[in-house]
Amino acid sequence: MTASGLRIKGKEPMQEPLETEGKNIFWIHYIRAVVALGVILVHVAADVITEWGVLPQGWWWSANIYDSLARGCVPVFIMVSGALLLPVQEGSRDFFSKRLKRIFIPFMVWSLLYLVWKKIFFIPDMTLMTALEKMLTANVCFHLWFFYVLTGMYLMTPLLRILAQHATRRDILYFLVLWFMAGSLAPFIYKITAMYGHPLPRINLYLEPVTGFIGYFVLGHFIRQHALPSWRNGAWIIWALTLLSCAVGTGMLAQRFNSFKEAFYDNMAPNIVFYCASFFIWVKLFLSPSPKAIHPGVEKIVVWLSRASLGIYLIHPMVLDIMEKGRLGFVLKPVSAHPAVMIPLLAGTGYLASFLAVSALQRIPVLRKIV
After folding, report:
1. What range defines the domain where residue 61 resides?
2. I need a surface site. Which of 1, 81, 187, 279 has the fewest CB within 10 A?
3. Distance between CA 221 and CA 226 in Å, rounded?
4. Cα–Cα distance for residue pair 8/143, rounded to 1 Å
């Protein structure tokens, strides 16, 4: 969330009990379910958004709006991990043992599956050494880079837990402000000014420890523990404004340079930081401590989708490839008709098909470990 509206002085807000990963936290389930759909929406819209000047502008703007709506999905996943993991105190051996089972094994299995998929359909002459190089350089499949980032976060978690345990609210806020200035705002300003041929000079301060996705990891923890009810309306307004800035800013850059520019789409762009934070805050405050207005049936569906979200993330590129390449005898592409219709149709179909595939795998004792 932004610094505006934050109350630093005075008493600390009442904090909800610290649940562990295994217990139901409905607002976390809701975020996982929605963000998994958002990831697919982004990947479907990407096939149109990169075609500025090739497709009709109305088609491009439809994709731009959908893509902007779903921006920041991976950072939000990282925020969820920070919110769940940083408050927990456990031995490093127990922590890494759990991560091995829940993340590393699925990542390795799916990396091998995608390498086989690529060899069959895209790179028939791929050698074992080429495959190994792709795994080491995060080049197996476009979505698996997330696991390299997550692995880095996990390696730092035992140290970050010390920060979370002993730092005050003000301390963590200081870290987040420093992260935003050094890792988001300054690089964004330099990137935009460089586009226009007048790059501002870089300030050579050594601030790498507070740059990158580590800020999202800590931000998720901060919002879970310290978000105040008074932030809710402000979060909704900021969410809407940053959504607008992403779509309009990207459109303006495309028109100015006659090509797609992803400055406002970047996961570390200031508008994306505020977009993710405001979404996280709003959902947390609206659905916590209990989903009072949610029908039990809807709640059950959301929890099902949430528990399948990792598997959905892992399998959806295969599902989209099957549909877009016509491997089952029919073709569904975001440009098969107007993208305003095709993008949500393809994303929704991919989401449902991925969920059904993951649900089937979860029923098989051996295979449930990979999803």
Report:
1. 26-370
2. 187
3. 8
4. 38
DSSP 8-state secondary structure symbol assigned to residue 231: G
Longest dimension (CA), the chain: 65
Q: What are phi and psi of 60, to 5 degrees?
A: -65, -45
The span from the first CA to the last CA of the chain, in angstroms, equals 32
Dihedral class, residue 197 (left if φ above 0, else alpha if ψ from -120 to 50, else beta): left
Tell me, yes or no, whether 292 lies in a domain.
Answer: yes
pLDDT in tens, 28-85: 999 999 999 999 999 999 999 999 999 999 999 999 999 999 999 999 999 999 999 9
- The number of beta carbons lying within 10 Å of the beta carbon of residue 341 is 12
110: in domain: yes
Structure tokens at 189: 């300003």
202 confidence band (pLDDT: 50, 70, 90): confident
d(CA 258, CA 251): 10
**Residue 2 to residue 234: CA distance in whole angstroms:** 9
Residue 362 and residue 85 in contact, taking contact as beta carbons nearer than 8 Å: no
| Cα gap 114→118, rounded to integer Å | 6
pLDDT above 80: residue 19: no
Does a structural domain hold residue 14?
Answer: no
* Closest to 16 in 3D by CA, of 84, 94, 115: 84
Classify residue 10 as left (phi > 0), alpha (psi -120 to 50) or beta.
left
